[in-house]
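Subject: for your reference before the review

Hello V.,

The reviewers asked for a structural picture of the protein, and I figured it would be easier to keep everything in one thread rather than splitting it across files. Below is the amino acid sequence we used in the manuscript, unchanged from the supplementary table.
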Amino acid sequence: MEHCIICGSAHLERERVTHHATEFGVGSVYFLNTPVIRCRDCGDEAVAIPHYRRVARQIRDRLCALNRVLKGDEFALLRRELGLTGTELARRLGVHAVTVSRWEQGHSPVSQSADRLLRSWTLAALGYAWPEMDRLLGSLPEGGIDTVEIDLATGPDGEWWMETHYRFGGTNTAWKMVR
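And here is what came back from the structure prediction:
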């Protein structure tokens, strides 16, 4: 039997909710049918993200399909996932590091050419072949999506790791990895 990690109570409730996944650092990602466990005694809440690595990959994939130029936080997430610093990305794009910082902080809009390059590099890192990348990027903005919504109820089968986001009565958070 499961117990609350805060108070030890066995009085837990489970439900599925739409979760605004701001813990990824972007405001445009929503998880549908997200498992939530709440303690009826202390009010602690845990949001479970099954298939975490696959979901993180799907977020990058879906960000590349947005029907608009990336926002700064989305641009920064893709840059970080490529393992690039802001300075390294600036050098590759032929712009000043301050320009990348301004884009990522939302002080100025991301240029369309930088947006397309970062999406291309991300899709290549995800294993897309050039013809498929060209088709996907060529269909934007008309064929794209306006927000990233991932339904966690229809995720892949098989053995998986689950990271659970625990909230401790306010803004304090932690991640717990369970198998």
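For the response letter, the relevant points are probably these. The longest helix spans residues 112-125. Strands lie at 12-20, 29-39, 45-50, 148-151, 162-167, 173-178.

Happy to draft the paragraph if you're swamped.

O.
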